[in-house]
Amino acid sequence: MKALVYTASQEMIFREEPAPEPVTGDALVSIESVGICGSDMHAYLGHDPRRVPPLILGHEAVGTVLQGNSPGERVVLNPLITCGTCHACLGGRQNLCDKRDLIGMYRPGAFAQQITIPERNLIRVPDDMDPNKAALTEPGATALHGILLAENAAARPVSESRALVIGAGSVGLLTALILMDKGVRQVDLAETNPLRRKTVNTHTDCHTFDPVEAAPGENKYDLVFDAVGGAVTRQVSVKCAKPGAVIVHTGLMDNHGTLDVRRMTLQEITFIGCYTYTPVDLRITLETLHSGALGSLDWIELRPLEEGAGAFHAIHHGHCAAPKVVLQVQDSGIQ
Asked: How confident is the model over 36-49, as a mean pLDDT?
């Protein structure tokens, strides 16, 4: 089969790879659409020691079942593979499973014509849904999970809140769109890339601004979502948070810098780390995307898988205007 393989820092090669072979309990899936995630970019830049080249990256995927319990069915992949029996899994927090695994990290990912994955990790896609938009399920579920964490910690309903989202990649943008769908009265979306801001402003009702030119107001927001996760954005998050505010940290750009813990303590600011999602988060997100509640979703950019290396290069150098690039995979045929 053909696959896009991460072979070295800032090197992606489209080449022939051995076809995957399912084991008992697995489905074989023909990949149709797969998004490029920020974590894929971290690996591409050599910043993720968990992703060791050569490796097929990619985990935001939609495809058609070739072999398994439902051949011919179009599915979204839940890329997080868990044990199902530990306390975290049984308590509905599968994302915290001690034995969790992820396609595109320790096992081959979805930048390929085919992949094997446990049957329980398949989520059926509505027949009339665009597979390229269904590929937003994984980042959308990450956004939703962060919002649910904020709702559980906030003193008042999020609909009464003023929210700041830092970063207009797909997780940040989908966070803003979900917050707006929940009736949040003001959502400000900070993004430094002017091309991306233009795309967001063209295709959504989100209010975007350049945080370099117009710094977010200090002591202003009830909710702050850091979808970048850098030293600077963490500092901005704490400065912008009102007394009693909730900060949700989703991005993983770096692990540098410090937090103003004194201010967080004196102002009772809650800081929450957010990692991925639960299976229910994925299902609800797919339903929400399909319903149209988050808009047209026309802000994605489509490229063929064989041009994936160029997409990585463009994203890294800030030349990509789209919050999400979805790679389209040539049909490998139902067997």
From this structure: 94
